[in-house]
Amino acid sequence: MTTRTGELSPAETTDPKNWTNKLRGRIEGLVPPGQALPARQPVYVASWIYVFGVLTLSSLVVVVASGCVLALGGSAWWHVSSLGHYTNSVHLWSVEMTFGFMVVHLWGKFWMAAWRGKRALTWITGIMLFGISIGTSFTGFLSQSNFDSQWIGGQAKDGLNSIGAGAFFNVLNPGQMLMWHVVLLPLAVGALTLVHIILVRRHGVVPPLDAKLEG
Amino acid sequence: MSALSMVAGAPGKYIAWGVIQISVTNLTIICVMIVLFILALVVPFPTHEDEQSEHEGRSR
Q1: pTM of the prediction?
Q2: Cα angle value A156/A162/A168 (rounded, 5°)
C-alpha cells in the first residue's frame, strides 16, 4: 500500500517476497558497510605499487571519454579535422597509459600473490579484463580507416583463421570491427571493471606477503 | 612531405637475438616499465605522518 505522500508502508519495504526488496538487499550486501568508498586504508597500502590500479582506472575514464567524442565525428573524422586528430591522439595515448599502468598493476599483484584470502575471483576478473582490453585495442587499430588498418587486418586474419577464430568474426570487415570496438568490447570491459572493483572493495586490498595482520 | 610524416614513415630499428626480434622502441618501453615497477617498490610513499613531522619541524 502506498500512502498519499508517496512513502511505502513498512510491510512493503520489508516483504521478503518482493523482488525489489530482494534486489536491494543483494546490492546493499555486495560490499561490507562503509567499504564502498572508504576514507582510510590499512598502513601497508601506503606504497606506490598500490597506486597503479587506480591509475589504470583513471586513464580508462579518459579512454572512454575521448572515444565518445570520436564517436560524434565518426571513424574518418580524425583524417580531416585537427580537432579530430587531437582527440584521436588523446584516445591512443590514454590507451597506451592504461596498458602501461595495467601491466605494472599486474606485475605488482602477481608478485604479491594477490589471489590469497578468497581473492581468486578478483584475480580472474583482472586477467579477463587484461585479455578483453587487448581485443578492444586491436579492434581499435582495425578501425583507423587507413592503409595501416588494412595491413593489420590482412596479417591478423591469417593468424586468427589458423586457429579457427575466423569462423566467428572477420577482421577484414571494418564495420563489424568498429561495432565490436565501440559497443560489444567496451560493454564487456565496463561490466568486468565494475565486478573487479566490487570484488576489491568486498575483500579489501591484498596485504603484502610479509604483513603482520591484527587478529 | 613534412618532417613529422617522414619520421612517422621511417622504418623501425630492430634488435635480433636468435628467435627473438624486438624493435628498439618496444624494448625501451619495456625497460622504462620495469624501472617504473622497481621505483614503485622502493620510493617511499608520502603519508600524513610525514606531513605532520614536516609541519612540526617548520614550527620549531
Answers
A1: 0.84
A2: 75
What is the tens place of the pLDDT at every residue in A52-77?
999 999 999 999 999 999 999 999 99
Q: Model confidence over A146-191: pLDDT tens digits?
A: 999 999 999 999 999 999 999 999 999 999 999 999 999 999 999 9
Query: Which amino acid is located at B2 in the chain?
Result: S
Q: 3-state SS string over chain B?
A: CCHHHHHHHCCCCEEEECCEEEEHHHHHHHHHHHHHHHHHHHCECCCHHHHHHHHHHHHC
Taking CA atoms, what residue in B is nearest to A101? Answer: B33
* Contacting residues of B for A110, CB less than 8 Å apart: none
Query: Domain segments of chain B: what residues?
Result: 8-43
Q: Which residues of A touch B47 (CB under 8 A)?
A: 46
The answer to whether B33 contacts A52, with C-beta atoms less than 8 Å apart, is: no
Of A46, A100, A104, the CB nearest to B47: A46
CA A8/CA A24 separation, integer angstroms: 15
Return the residue of B nearest to A112 by Cα.
Answer: B41
Give the distance from CA A125 to its chain's centroid: 10
Q: Do B36 and A51 touch (CB under 8 A)?
A: no
Which among A46, A47, A107 has the least Cβ separation from residue B37? A107
Closest CA to A153 of A132, A176, A133: A176
SS3 A8: strand
Question: What ipTM does the predicted assembly reach?
Answer: 0.79
Question: How close A209 gets to chain B, by Cα (Å)?
Answer: 14
Q: What span, in angstroms and rounded, lies between the C-alpha atoms of A181 and A137?
A: 8
Amino acid at A73: G
